[in-house]
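Checklist before submission:
- one chain only
- standard amino acids only
- sequence pasted in full

Submission:
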Amino acid sequence: MNDRAPQPVDRQLPTEESRDLLALVREIAQREIRPVAADEEDAGTFPRAIFTLLSEAGLLGLPYAGEHGGGEQPYEVYLQVLEELAAARLTVGLGVSVHSLACHGLAGYGTEEQQKAHLPAMLGGGLLGAYCLSEPASGSDAASLTTKAVRDGEDWIITGTKAWITHGGVADFYTVLARTGAEGPKGITAFLVPGDAEGLTAAVPEKKMGMKGSPTAQLHFDGVRVPDTRRIGQEGQGFTIALAALDAGRLGIAACAVGVAQAALDEALAYALDRKQFGHPIADFQGLRFMLADMATKIEAGRALYLAAARLRDAGKPFSRQAAMAKLFCTDAAMAVTTDAVQVLGGYGYTADFPVERLMREAKVLQIVEGTNQIQRMVIARHLAGPESR
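Returned file contents:
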């Protein structure tokens, strides 16, 4: 395994404060996250202590308002933090992205009273969140969800099952989308549900190809009672809230994908410079040099694409199409780069002695989560040509 710390990415950051922030993140990643990533992933260990550390360092609420405990950082800075964390360990980078996604609804659509009551603990008080949209029979067709919330006086009673929930069973709060009205997107409402709510249970976590340290589980809501004061937004507004969160979340996945790809390139380059065949480092051979050049180009292109989308978001401009493009390109690039990294290392790349095989397994899930890449193509095409005529 390569024990050398990777060279810092040459980043274009807007302020001295953001440069100091990225330096802090790199320090935490290299000191606390990267050294134990392989062993903890192999053992399936969830790094809750790392998330506590990140919360104490102010890194779990970076893109949110300072008045509620957020970091008030632009999205272009927040995403580069995610990239650094994901390069050290995807379970951590993706976990921060999911936590931010879980905070999005309340931060964007909650009342002032709700925000004052809950956001400080969510953004900087050590809590960890999860996002509950998908169901066993409702994945890409999210508007067909069947989990129900029925009004009972000043409360709502939630019944149903959510699936593929990152942090399922370990989160302190869940942003839950449930049906309160008729079929279709207009009958969905969002709720903030405590992780210890009576009637809420988690199934045994899924046995996954990668990201074994990140629990992914079904959640069962068996008559979970939630006060109306925990309803986010208006009744029937939930799907709009969900789509807005997913646009932002897709940029988080794109940044994580670039981080995974960068980590794979760093490992492949270090190996190619050290490994000798026929009396020369294998980095001297043109076929391999071209592979490294293509890998680096994909990473730079992906980084530029997600940052361009982030800057649109920071400027208050529409960015849904660009977010879908970034998620699509960056995750496909991560799959290609990590696969090539395994090839550069040859037989060693296929062993657990080097991290590239783990990075390749982890890259695959990024093409699936928060909207498969086929869904991203549909989103992009609709922006270009309008809805399908059928």
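Reviewer check: Residues 238-274 form the longest helix (37 residues).
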